[in-house]
Amino acid sequence: MHTLAPRPLPFRTATAMLVRSLAVQASWNYETMLGTGVGFSVEPALRELPGGREGAKYREALARETHYFNAHPYLAAVAIGALARVELDGSMPPAQIERFRIALCGPLGSVGDRLVWAGWLPFTALVALLAYGLGAGPVFVVTLFLVLYNVGHVGLRIWGLRTGWSHGMRVAGSLATPFLRRGPEYLARAVMGLCGLALPLAAARILGRSDMPLAEVARKSVLGPHALVFLLLAVAALLGILLVKLHGRLDGWRVALLIVVLLALHSVAS
Amino acid sequence: MTLETILMFALLGAILGLDVVSFPQAMWSRPVVASTIAGTLGGSASDGLLAGVFLEMMALETLPVGASRYPEWGTASVVGGALYVSRSGDATSALLFAMLGAMITAWVGGWSMYALRRLNGRWTKQALPALEAGNASVVTWLQMRGLAADLLRGFALTALALALLIPLTAFAVANGHGDSATIRAVLVAVAASIAGSAAWKLSHGSKHGPWFFLGGLAIGCAMLLGG
């Protein structure tokens, strides 16, 4: 069930909240996590409370909003909008607002992590790698990545703020919206497909025409000029399978660092 | 590399390092962007992009999830791109040592972010009475102090990394005798394995996910065979 906002959030206030929400993690710490950032982002709306910036209600609300909070930074905008609405409505007891804040943490964290960190970010990064593999230049690759990523990023923050403000206390229902529910699943498939597509093309562009003796032998095989790429992808697949098996026990980048160190030592020592 | 150039890269590292967590997380700190910008500043956007593509593949497995400690690829990519474009000597050896320098910087960067978060925590604890009193200027001050400290962290890390790694890289490249083609092949295999395993770990649980991966791989390989 949706309720209408008592009045539209003034454009200037909404813009200030949106801009401030970009720095919601500026003072991130292990004690209050995003707490101070949420208070900082909600603050422009709290000025509308009776008594303004000098009023007791403003100070009480701001103190409350700087308490512990944790969520995905982009989807924290949903909480920022909803908390601003709840504070300005003034109909909810302080203890209930505190409970509402805490209740928002879990869903906004898990949905955001799956949608953005495990979905949208790798998806757009792989689009950039694919563009590189297809021969695109630096300006195109970087512009494509930044525009694509930030259409989703900024769009999600604006949607979050508006949704939070318009639904207030009932904002939890909006997390069942199709793009939040099904988006991660669709993105996961796209990430898998794009990864398979982008890796051979990017590898081929990096390698160019290798003058390794092994590459020369491989080139004479049925696989032709890119035989070395296929060979390396097979090696990468073996190492990748090992990394997947060791998931949770060993980070891939640490293994990569070890290999690069050994390669560097071999290069200097030989 | 002159002191002015190091300071210029350090400023870039500060701005891009800030983007990793503090502000605005628009992902201009991603390696493919950060390294390319560093390359452009150093005189070759294409070289910056090449280093960025390698680092991006390695960074794909890093999820910047809240409280976890992870390598910080923003300043690291500036360092990697700067080291690669400022090379003198064999390009592939320089790429190897630039990647090594970037990965070490990413590791140290992760620790510096952990230290910054603890520092933010200490500042917040000290400010608790003012926060409980609903003091808006203290809230703003904590945010600004966090931003400034992160900016300083990125600047110092980039400057220090470049000051240490430029002479070391130059020495290693001058004394490196590894086969260029082999080095490049190993780097590609390592980066591809990290990227592939990262995508698999993130997404294999999706419905038909492995088939999407194999389908993409088949199309990619077919494009190579056909082209």
Whole-angstrom Rg of chain B: 20 Å
* Biggest sheet character of chain A: none
Q: Tell me the total number of β-strands of chain A.
A: 0
Strand content of chain A: under 5%
* Helix and strand composition category of chain B: mainly alpha
Largest two-chain interface: A-B, 109 and 115 residues
Overall mean pLDDT of chain A stands at 91
What overall form of chain B do the CA principal axes indicate?
Answer: flat
Bin the strand percentage of chain B: under 5%
Give helix % range of chain B. over 70%
Number of helices of chain A: 11
User: Main beta sheet of chain B: strand number and arrangement?
Assistant: none
- Average residue pLDDT of chain B: 95
Oligomeric state as shown: heterodimer
| Strand segment count of chain B | 0
Q: Helical percent range of chain A?
A: over 70%
Short précis:
The complex is a heterodimer of chains A (270) and B (227). Helix content of chain A is 70%, strand content 0%.
Describe the structure in your own words.
The complex is a heterodimer of chains A (270) and B (227). Chain A has eleven helices and no strands. With 270 residues, chain A is mainly α. In chain A, α4 packs parallel to α6 (138-167). Chain A starts with 10 loop residues before the first helix and ends with a helix. Helices cover 80% and strands 0% of the residues of chain B. Classes of the chains: A mainly alpha (270), B mainly alpha (227). Chains A and B meet through α2, α3, α5, α6 and α8 of A and α2, α3, α5, α7 and α8 of B.
